[in-house]
């Protein structure tokens, strides 16, 4: 019982233990250098941190954070505007529905031609991915609000700012954070692919470079690094959600 409570309170430790056990099982069953042991990989990971692995991690983190901030500003602003203006949304919705399903990685060659082979094209690619997810989620969240709520809060003399503060944003934020989590996961996967083109820094480049050198221990150390990078981003999103959506935590506690 005490062990169960410990794992419930430390879910990160529980998840790490399960993954390492499964990793060991595959390493033992396959008996191949392609899947090195977890201990060997973890030791190599810490050794690489003293060299250039941190630079690769920071390069990837920088691209994701910059793209995320741009996407949030544009996606939330446009999403709120379209959600609150039904007539204008009718003109933009067909374009959104046409562009949203397209795999955004298809735009990478175009972005490289327009914005060069450096950071900008990769940031623009991630921005497009996150932007559409946030735009659609924000717009649909606003459109899903009961119109009577708007009438009620306006009848109380609420200003436009108070309308956003007490009705629109509280309704949008929880779904927005879910959209960010989904889009960030997709963005990391796409960034892994994009960092293999005309770059010398980034986790994607590091992993594929290790693979071409047939250094599977370093390759798995890179996979471990990208996993920790994702964990860092998701924990940051969780902290923001707890700070900005405090009423959700209070509801869970009362339940």
Structure description:
The protein is mainly α. The protein folds into 2 domains: 1-31; 36-254, MetI-like (MetI-like fold), CATH 1.10.3720. It contains 12 helices and no strands. The protein is elongated and about 70 Å long. It comes from Evansella alkalicola. Belongs to the binding-protein-dependent transport system permease family. This is ABC transporter permease. Keywords: Cell membrane, Membrane, Transmembrane, Transmembrane helix, Transport.
The total of helices stands at 12
Calculate the mean pLDDT score and round it.
84
Using the coordinates above, name the CATH class of the largest domain. Answer: Mainly Alpha
- CA radius of gyration: 22 Å
**End-to-end CA span:** 22 Å
Backbone structural class: mainly alpha
Largest sheet data: none
Element-by-element helix/strand order: HHHHHHHHHHHH
Fourth-level CATH superfamily of the largest domain: MetI-like
CATH architecture of the largest domain: Orthogonal Bundle
